[in-house]
Structures are given as structure tokens and as C-alpha cells.
Amino acid sequence: MTILILVLVFLAECNPEVDREEIPEGWKSLDEIPNNPAYVTLPLTAIRWQLVGFVDGEKNIIRPVIQTVPYVIYFRDDYVIGGQIYINKIRGEYSSLGEGSIQMDVDIIKHVTEYGMEDADLFIEALNDAHTFTVTEKGLQLYYGDQQYLLFKCAFDNRCLQVINCGDEDYSDKVCSDESISGAWKAHKIRLNISGSLCEVIPPSGTPGYLGNPTYPDISIILPTPIGSSSTTFYNRIAVSYELSDNNQISLNYADLTRDGEDDWGISLTDNLLNTATYCLAGDELVFFDEKDLPLIVFIKK
Residue 164 and residue 288: Cα distance in Å, rounded? Predict the structure, then answer.
């Protein structure tokens, strides 16, 4: 019996994995997070990163966050940070002093609800304390301590790994019509938050939204929104309202009808709607511009 106990003790000491009995409640082994070899090819920027959890690298454990309450962040090439905690908006700036180094200044700019905000303060604090980042097969790792880091995955894998046809086009020479813009319009191009580029819309693929609703065939708006109908953002439905004034000025707003998980297309659409200042109806195209005449969304007639 003594020999058996000694053998078991020896084997336990030789096993580098964390003893499950030592893992605190709410945590789990980091080995349970699957690897994705494609992640190592991804840059920091132009990706919508969703928080998987808080990692203690020394103990090889992670405290996951609830995946139905997305903690999402993105880094733009112009050093702007954006994102959300559920439906609360976060915003900030970042800088890099060299390979793998990072400094951030992030805050919540639109606090709509307390739902899902249990880890919000710790999340924002960790972002502002971050000093190093790396992208591995586990995902993006933002270090805010010696071995403590935030682990992120691609918010929507089927989008993260796609090449999107992006490129700005000059719409300033369009001859604008004074005809009514009422009707159904399908988004052809959207200026994406994560890259700042005007990109062609890619139809959705893969799994449906978080609540299991079927994916929609396109991103579209209906002006004005008829009763019983609505606009779509692939995974959600929204109601759009607008007011017109002189010189093709337009003020748009929207209301959420559903709140499934959303990717950058839908979030960029709704952000761009709020930032739209003017419009141009030219043939079968309807273009929304911001106050600096930057094209935000290009629609085509449905």
C-alpha cells in the first residue's frame, strides 16, 4: 500500500497540468479552449474580437465570460478603438511603441443597460492596463499583468477569415435626383467600423444568430418602415425612421426590434445610419454621406 501511494504521488508531481481540484469555481483549464490554426495569420486590426475570458497563464486556467453577452472590441488602422459590452458602446484610442507592445485608453461612452455588465469594470481596467499583445492559435491575447491576459476569439469566424472586396469610390460627381427615396433598399456597400473602408456586402453564412433566428438574405432598409415590415441587418430586425430637409439633408434613427448577436456589418450599418447627414439618389443607387461628405452606405433598389 505504501509503495502504491508513493507511486501516485510521484505521478502527480510529474504531471504539469493543473489539478482539477485546485481550479477555483467559475474557472477551467485553458486546455479546454480549442485551437484555431487560422488565427495566427490574423492581424490585430480590422478584426472584431470577442472576449473568451480572463486568463491566469501561470496556472493555465481561464475564467470564461458568458458568450451570449458579448464583450467585443476592434482596433482600426487609424488607432481608434471601438466595441461593445452587450449593447453598451465602448470607445478609445491605442498606440504601439514597437512589435507586440500596446497602450490603450478605453471607456464606456454609451451606457444603456446594466444587463451583462458584471465584468465591465474589470474588462475596461484590464484594457487600460494592457502592455503587450500576441495572436496565437487560441486567439488574441492582451496582457495586462506578467501572466494575466484577456483572451479573445473572432466574434464571427466565418467573417474573420474572409477577404472582403473593399475600396473607396468617388461618389462626388453623382447627379442627384429629387425623386422620393421611399421604398425598399438593399445595402451594396457599407463603411465598416473595424477597417474604416467601404466594402461590398457579403451574404451571411454559417450559424444563425444567438437566439436561433434564421439568417436574413441581405442587409436592407425600408423607407419609411411600413407597419408589419422592417429593415434587416442579417441577424436582426430594426425599424428605421427619417426626416428630410433642404439640400438633401437627412436625419435617420432606428429602433431595435430584436437583439441577436451581431457582426460588423450590422453594427456598422446602424452606426452609419446615425452618422448620416446627407443623401444622393442617383438612378437605382441611394448613397448616404456623413457631414464631411464621406460615403457611408451605398444602397441599390430592391
Answer: 21
Classify residue 12 by burial, with Cβ atoms within 10 Å: 0-12, 13-18, 19+: exposed
Sign of the alpha-carbon torsion through 176, 181, 184, 190: positive
Q: Same domain, yes or no, for 206 and 277?
A: yes
**Quick one: pLDDT at residue 48?**
85
Domain count, the chain: 2
C-beta of residue 267 within 8 angstroms of C-beta of residue 282: no
Average pLDDT, the chain: 84
CA angle 220, 263, 233 (to 5 degrees): 15
Contacts of 205 (CB under 8 A, 6+ apart): 158, 215
Do residues 75 and 205 both lie within one domain? no
Same structural domain for residues 145 and 23? yes
pLDDT band (50, 70, 90) for residue 209 = very low
Same-domain pairing of 131 and 224:
no
- Grid cell, residue 237, equals 430586425
Which among 204, 199, 242 is positioned nearest to 221, based on CA atoms?
242
Q: Are residues 215 and 266 in the same domain?
A: yes
Burial class (CB in 10 A: 0-12, 13-18, 19+), 294: middle
Confidence of residue 211 (pLDDT cuts 50, 70, 90): very low
Least confident of 69-78, 139-148, 164-173: 164-173
Domain around 236 = 183-301
